[in-house]
Each structure stands twice: as structure tokens, then as C-alpha cells.
Write a structure and sequence with these properties.
7 strands, transport, ABC transporter involved in vitamin B12 uptake, BtuC, transmembrane, transmembrane helix, 2 domains, mainly alpha, globular, 5% strand
């Protein structure tokens, strides 16, 4: 049995980005290297890299991985592209600059919650309370600011601490008391709705709505970066991505391992650069719907409207990127991340390897609720108020849908942080596109139906790819 105090297992990343971990007596992680598969077997086809570093070998290996059930975020990315094309054709205003910025800010809150849910889903668990936990934490923040005039750093810190406590309670009940996470979080889901309402009203009334007056908090998901800062962000994104790719390339070359073809790396970096700079250019344009002064009718009266300027990348974008980078590093480059994948892939094997399974399980619920707190703050920042109605079932479904649609498995052991962002984009495009396309009382109904169908398709792809991988011996 492996000793948990031994040095961390080394990370072995193949030329296509698949990661595994090699220890002294065994392997933990998404890819196992315990024994060599038989030549010609499906396992060998799905896990080995063809000889050579040519583009054709890279493409062949990638296609073999797809056939072996390793779909990753490909279905979500394909669906996102198709949805954007369809909505752009059916609704010309969908591809407008104002709508682009609107989707970024509206979709941010659920994406933060989805990032936390990725940790829980990697263990094959679920957190049904994440939506109302976000509401409780946001309510704690705004109550401290409005009722006690606490500065925003203290209020936000208290909100995140509340999330940590909530996550610890859920994790403790699941890991130590052995109550299924579905039951625990369903109970918290019901209780937190009342807790959020009680805190919002200070024990009085039933409205549960508090306006956020702090300009800094409102600016998180409401203000835009200066034009120059947007371009700087684009340079950092492209430069950082290129640096990571080439450093990994050099590291593998020094170890005598297969590497990605330079042409493939150049294509990936180029694609990221084109997409990033085009997005920043679009967001830096004036996308206000009132770009020129004029008049409009309000309550039967003609009112003069001043020209408005709305340009720049929303501040919430670099915040999302920062969390994405941190959590991606944690999952892919730390011992803790390897343990999360190991427990999610095979709990009993992880326990026998000396991994503290209960501690890992509690920690993922803590991270999930802490991210729910941040998501709740962002949702409040977007609408500049905290209302119990803005959280709960819909918020939870959007977040869970984002993680699963993005490619994180419901069965545990498979998923990446990018899944939350890609899936969140898909969900937001559906909601935004359907709200513009379908008007009237049926708009919400159609949104729910379409989102449910897409979520079911994502779950079906997950189940089928897992079965395919199982039949391949993975």
C-alpha cells in the first residue's frame, strides 16, 4: 500500500494533453500506466501515441481517442458553434455587440457555481443546494454592507466563509455520517431558501430583496475594463497559453517523450489569438443601445435621452479567467488534483493506495460551496441587488447543466475546469437566444424544454462514451 507521505507522483502528459500520474507502486489519475496493453487491443489503440511527431500521427491518435469514448468538450463546442449560427440566422439581434456583452455578464454567476460543481461531480457526487447556498452567502454579504455598514472586503470574506462552513457541513454529513449527497443537499436546498429569506429581511417581512449600494461590488459584474486593459488582457491570454504549450513541449523533449507537432501547437496558439483579439475588439466598440442623443416616449410623455457609452471588456471576464487558471493548475498539476481524480475513478483503489478519501470528499464540497458564494455575489452584482428569487432551482439547474453539458461526467473521474466555461456558454446562448426568438408567455417554457433536451443529450453522450471506454478496456 502506498504511503500518503511519499513524494507526489510525477505527471505524465502525452502529446495530446492527456494526463496520468505514475507512482512507485501504482498509478492514480485519469490515465493508468500499470501494465502495457496487448498489441492490437482496443486499449492499446486508445491509449498509445503513434510513432513519430507528424500531424497525421497526431490526428490519427486524436480520432482513436474519440472512438475510444474520450469525447472531452468536443460535443459542447460543436453544439455551441451550431447554436450561435442558428440563432444568428433566425434572430439578427442575437449577434449584436450589446447582446454579446450581455451574455458575458449574465452567464458569469452560473459559471462560477459550475466551477465548484466540477469538483463535486469529479467524485460522482452532486450538490443540489448550490443555488440557494449562493443566495445565502450573497445575502450575508449584502446584509453586512447595508445593515452594519461593513466594508466590501469584510462582507465578501464573510460570504465566502459562510460558503466554506456550508460545504464543510455537507461534506461531513456525506463522508462521516454516510448520508447520500443527494439527500443531504436536497435537505439543505429546502432549508437554505428559508434561511436566505430570513436573513434578507432581518427576520421580518416576506419580500427578500435588498439593493446593493456598494459601487465596487456592483462593478464586479457590471463595469467594463478600460480599452487598453482589454488589449493587455488579450496579450496576456495569448502569451500565457503559448508559453504553457512551448514549456510543456520542451519539457517532454528533454525527457525523450513524444511531443505535439509544432504545426499543431502553432495552429492552437493562432486560433486562440484570433478568437481572443476578435472578441476584445468587438467588446471595445461602443455597444450601447443609446449611442446617440434623442427622444423616447415614457408614460405618454416625450423624454430626452442622452447619448451613452458602453465599451470595454466586462471586469467579470478576467475574474473568471483567474479562477479558471488556478483551478486548472490545482486539478492537473498538484497531488490534491490527482487524488480527486483517483477517488472519483475508483474510490476503493484510492483508499487502498493511502489516499484520505473522506478528507478529499469533504474538501470538494467546501470548494463547491465557496465557489457558490462567489457565484452568488456575481449574480447580485449583475442585477445590483440580492433577491431570493434570483437563486435556487433555476440557478442550480443552469450550473449543473453547464458542468455536464461541458463534458464533466456524472459518474465521476472525468472532467476539466474548462467544461464549466464551455457548458456555461452553451446554456447562456440557449437562454438568450430563445428569449429573443420566442416572445410572450411561452418564452420561459421553451427555454426550459430546450435546455432540458440539451442536458439529456449531454448525459446520454457521457453514458455512451463511458460505456465505449469500458468496452475498450479503459
Amino acid at each position: 500500500m502506498n504511503d500518503i507521505n511519499k513524494p507526489p507522483a510525477s505527471v505524465d502528459t502525452d502529446a495530446n494533453g492527456t494526463e496520468g500520474t505514475k507512482g512507485t507502486e501504482g498509478t492514480t489519475g485519469a490515465t493508468r500506466n500499470v501494465s502495457a496493453p496487448k498489441a492490437g487491443s482496443l486499449e492499446a489503440v486508445a491509449t498509445t501515441v503513434p510513432t513519430g511527431n507528424s500531424v497525421s500521427a497526431y490526428v490519427t491518435n486524436y480520432l482513436q481517442r474519440l472512438r475510444g469514448g474520450e469525447m472531452g468538450s468536443l460535443p459542447a463546442v460543436t453544439g455551441l458553434v451550431l447554436l450561435v449560427i442558428v440563432f444568428s440566422i433566425l434572430q439578427p439581434t442575437f449577434k449584436g455587440l450589446f447582446n454579446l456583452g450581455n451574455m458575458l455578464t449574465e452567464g458569469a454567476g452560473p459559471i462560477f457555481i459550475a466551477m465548484g460543481l466540477v469538483f463535486v461531480l469529479l467524485l460522482g457526487e452532486i450538490d443540489l443546494s448550490a443555488g440557494f447556498a449562493a443566495g445565502v452567502c450573497a445575502t450575508v454579504m449584502v446584509r453586512l454592507m447595508v445593515g452594519y455598514h461593513a466594508p466590501w472586503p469584510v462582507s465578501i470574506g464573510a460570504a465566502i466563509l459562510t460558503g466554506v462552513i456550508i460545504g464543510f457541513l455537507i461534506g461531513f454529513l456525506r463522508a462521516k455520517v454516510r448520508i447520500p449527497s443527494f439527500v443531504v443537499t436536497l435537505a439543505f436546498f429546502l432549508a437554505f431558501q428559508g434561511v436566505a429569506l430570513y436573513i434578507a429581511n432581518n427576520g421580518k417581512g416576506q419580500k427578500g430583496d435588498i439593493t446593493i449600494t456598494d459601487s465596487v461590488v456592483n462593478g464586479f459584474d457590471g463595469n467594463q475594463m478600460p480599452i487598453w486593459a482589454g488589449w493587455l488582457l488579450a496579450v496576456l491570454i495569448v502569451g500565457g497559453y503559448a508559453a504553457v504549450k512551448f514549456l510543456a513541449q520542451n519539457g517532454r523533449r528533454r525527457q525523450g517523450l513524444n511531443t505535439e507537432p509544432i504545426a499543431v501547437i502553432a495552429f492552437k496558439v493562432g486560433a486562440i489569438a484570433v478568437g481572443t483579439f476578435l472578441a476584445v475588439y468587438a467588446l471595445n466598440q461602443n455597444r450601447s443601445i443609446n449611442q446617440a442623443a434623442g427622444f423616447k416616449t415614457v408614460n405618454g410623455k416625450l423624454v430626452k435621452v442622452a447619448a451613452q457609452e458602453l465599451s470595454g471588456v466586462p471586469w467579470v471576464v478576467p475574474i473568471i479567467i483567474a479562477f479558471f487558471v488556478v483551478w486548472t493548475f490545482v486539478l492537473s498539476r498538484t497531488r490534491y488534483g490527482r487524488h480527486v481524480y483517483a477517488v472519483g475513478g475508483n474510490e476503493e483503489a484510492a483508499r487502498r493506495a493511502g489516499i484520505p478519501v473522506d478528507r478529499i470528499r469533504i474538501s470538494v464540497f467546501v470548494l463547491c460551496s465557496a465557489m457558490a458564494a462567489i457565484g452568488g455575489i456575481m449574480i447580485g452584482s449583475n442585477v445590483q441587488s440580492v433577491s431570493v428569487a434570483n437563486y435556487g432551482g433555476n440557478t442550480l439547474l443552469l450550473a449543473v447543466g453547464a458542468a455536464v453539458i461541458g463534458g464533466t461526467s456524472l459518474f465521476g473521474g472525468k472532467g476539466r475546469m474548462i467544461d464549466a466555461i464551455v457548458g456555461g456558454a452553451v446554456v447562456e446562448v440557449i437562454y438568450n437566444g430563445m428569449s429573443n426568438l420566442v416572445k410572450g408567455t411561452n418564452s420561459a417554457a421553451v427555454q426550459y424544454i430546450v435546455t432540458g433536451v440539451v442536458l439529456m443529450l449531454a448525459a446520454a453522450v457521457d453514458a455512451l462514451s463511458r460505456r465505449r471506454a469500458g468496452s475498450s478496456g479503459l
